[in-house]
Sequence to fold (326 residues):
Amino acid sequence: MKLTDSMVNNIFVHSMDVELNVTLLTLGGFAELHKYRYLYFVVTFTLYILILCFNSTIVCLIWTHTNLHEPMYIFIAALLINSVLYSMTIYPKLLSDVLSEKQIISYPLCLFQGFLYYTSAGSEFLLLAAMAYDRYVSICKPLQYAVIMNRITIYVSLVLAWIIPAFEIAVSVVLYSNVKLCSFTLTGIFCNNSGYKLQCVSSVAISIYGVVMLINIALLPMLFILFTYIRIVRISYQSCREVRKKAVKTCLPHLLVLINFSCFIVFDVVIVRLESDLSKTLRLILTFQSILFHPLLNPIIYGLKMNEIFKSLKILFCHVTVAGNI
Fold:
């Protein structure tokens, strides 16, 4: 009897499982990897470097320019640092898998990757909520802005934005660590919600907790963001032209980032969790879009739409150009 590639792969994984006494999972989301292995690697590596450079450049600008040491820009820097952490969770393992003959990962390491991945995703929503509140106070309560958005408020917001998702995701990881697996092939290229389908019997506790967690770190922050921007629009409409102009300039980038990230969450929850009937190639394309557009578009949006950051970028590029011509 002729063995197929999937049969050989399963035999390999289970033999490794016995030898190492760990549960190994196969990452089955790659399409035509043997044909386009080096193209995958070059494209992925290039995108990873661009993401690191774009985000790090703006973070360094905010760090080194004292005129950018304001709550709004501090939150932007935190958001871009979160994008870097998000990318570092996915891309190094992805690059390694592209060059490997077998795309496998141990179950504990998979849980850890999922923990980092969803912690950074949850932190994104909470950081966007903090930024929305900052804009609300700035535009709707300008005289109280310095009192409300003080250093303590900023630091507490940043700490909570990372601690709350980390705690809630950690509970989910503990629940997943105790389930029995009957399938050992993930439909994705990294560890995400597709691990839900590996269980022998769907856990009611995990399903309920997943919904509660989604409400806490995604839905509630999104509703808060929408509420604050509705308030900003109402007050701006009743105010002078300068207030409306300020609202558009500072709020539009945040709304673009929110829309971009919300689309990513919809893909992760709907497409991955519900196992929509998509071809492997289409699923791979959609996955690459979700892990590319979000961390790469954030610095581009803030770099082009925020005047102070854009001015600092122009000065930096002018200095680099002059230095290059010397």
Remarks:
- Confidence is low (pLDDT under 50) at residues 11-19.
